[in-house]
Amino acid sequence: MMSFEMNDRKKIGLGLTGFGVFFTFLGVVLLFDKGLLAMGNILFLSGLALTIGLKSTLQFFMKPQNYKGTISFGVGFFFVLIGWPILGMILESYGFLVLFSGFWPTLAVFVQRIPVLGWILQQPFFRSLIDRYRGKRVPV
């Protein structure tokens, strides 16, 4: 059973993950700066390992259904390190989407509870998109 208490290790892990996302975003905005992208990847992965634990992280990446995403993310990371940041980020983005596609419905529910953004997502157009993505039948 996973505990949801926030100890110092998890707090540091969330901080590292946040900085990883920030550095990756900054690397993309600054025309695919390979140093910032590599730093973002390293911080993201180390933050993930600290947040959920090293064993859980390895188990997540080594699941047979996640092999395609893991390989794509790893090859993309390698391309960023050797100096091909655009190709690397394309591969990493694909791997990220494949790896974390199971979390999108949970994220959608979380975002719908944010005050202003949640109200926007409750509008009929967005609501039908969210319901269709979740696999619910949308009345016509």
UniProtKB/TrEMBL annotation:
<dbReference type="GO" id="GO:0006888">
    <property type="term" value="P:endoplasmic reticulum to Golgi vesicle-mediated transport"/>
</dbReference>
<feature type="transmembrane region" description="Helical">
    <location>
        <begin position="97"/>
        <end position="121"/>
    </location>
</feature>
<keyword id="KW-1133">Transmembrane helix</keyword>
<protein>
    <recommendedName>
        <fullName>Vesicle transport protein GOT1B</fullName>
    </recommendedName>
</protein>
<dbReference type="InterPro" id="IPR007305">
    <property type="entry name" value="Vesicle_transpt_Got1/SFT2"/>
</dbReference>
<keyword id="KW-0812">Transmembrane</keyword>
<dbReference type="GO" id="GO:0042147">
    <property type="term" value="P:retrograde transport, endosome to Golgi"/>
</dbReference>
<dbReference type="Pfam" id="PF04178">
    <property type="entry name" value="Got1"/>
</dbReference>
<dbReference type="GO" id="GO:0000139">
    <property type="term" value="C:Golgi membrane"/>
</dbReference>
<keyword id="KW-0472">Membrane</keyword>
<dbReference type="GO" id="GO:0005829">
    <property type="term" value="C:cytosol"/>
</dbReference>
<feature type="transmembrane region" description="Helical">
    <location>
        <begin position="70"/>
        <end position="91"/>
    </location>
</feature>
<keyword id="KW-0333">Golgi apparatus</keyword>
<dbReference type="InterPro" id="IPR045176">
    <property type="entry name" value="Got1"/>
</dbReference>
<feature type="transmembrane region" description="Helical">
    <location>
        <begin position="12"/>
        <end position="32"/>
    </location>
</feature>
<feature type="transmembrane region" description="Helical">
    <location>
        <begin position="38"/>
        <end position="58"/>
    </location>
</feature>
<comment type="similarity">
    <text>Belongs to the GOT1 family.</text>
</comment>
